[in-house]
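User:
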Amino acid sequence: MYAIFKNGGKQYKVVEGSIVLLDKMSLEPKSKVELNEVLAIVNGDKAQIGEPFVKGAKIEAEVINEGRGKKVVTFKKRRRKDSKTKRGFRRDFTRVKILKIVAK
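Assistant: Predicted structure:
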């Protein structure tokens, strides 16, 4: 059984027990989170597809920790123009563990 849900403009495919990096939520470790924007739930041959979300479905998760990802560097160079830009950023994330997928 797996589910597809939306968080922060991105879609994630998860099974129970998996660990996912979501956008920063500013929550304490060991706190519980309910993710209600479930797009689809697939259990063997049966599939529930939402329009846009599956009614009564939710994903229960537990916050493990928060952190920052590796630095991503963007570098643009225009040849023969003496023009270049170098920028970087680090993504803030919340690491959560999927405890339960609840379908109606």
